[in-house]
Amino acid sequence: MGPDGFEVEVTKLDLRPGGEYVYLMKAVGPDQVEYMKQAGMPIATEQHVVFVEVDPPTRLVYRDIADFIPGVEPYEVETVVELQKVGNATRVVVTFDAMHDERWTENARLGREQELRKLGDLLAKRE
């Protein structure tokens, strides 16, 4: 699941420390496609994620490379996902390294919130 207006196609998933997760993220919403074009960014990018820590069912740490931003040298971003049982629910906390500027960091935060909302909606349908 990607942020609103994007589709994600997973092409590889090896969920273990040192394993790789590869996916293609493609802008499909008209506003997102237009934004990508105006920003000089490709409509679709292939992302490569490497799992650093896999500790089911409570913690996942992974790193990916932000290499799709025009005029910015590629850099690594680490993300930590922590899950905690709270009664009959699960609390999910996602933290990640700041991006190269505040606007990109905020966009990443908003995108991850959208992804978590979509996951919650999907899980609610399964109940």
Question: What is the secondary structure topology, with strand pairs?
Answer:
Layout: E1 6-13, E2 20-27, H1 30-38, E3 44-55, E4 59-66, E5 75-86, E6 89-96, H2 102-126
Antiparallel strand pairs: 1-2, 2-3, 3-4, 4-5, 5-6
What is the first-to-last residue Cα distance? Answer: 19 Å
CATH architecture classification name: 2-Layer Sandwich
Beta-strand portion reads 35-45%
Q: Give the name of the CATH superfamily.
A: START domain
If you compute it from the alpha carbons, what radius of gyration comes out, rounded to the nearest whole angstrom?
15 Å
Helix content: 25-40%
Q: Which sequence of strands runs across the widest sheet?
A: 1-2-3-4-5-6
- Tally of structural domains: 1
Describe this protein's structure.
The protein is of the alpha+beta class. The chain has a single domain, classed as Alpha-D-Glucose-1,6-Bisphosphate, Chain A, domain 4 (2-Layer Sandwich), CATH 3.30.530.20. 27% of the residues lie in helices and 44% in strands. It contains two helices and six strands. Strands 1-2-3-4-5-6 form a six-stranded antiparallel beta sheet. It is globular and about 45 Å long.
Summarize the structure.
This protein is α+β, with helices and mostly antiparallel strands and 127 residues long. The protein has helices at residues 30-38, 102-126, and strands at residues 6-13, 20-27, 44-55, 59-66, 75-86, 89-96.
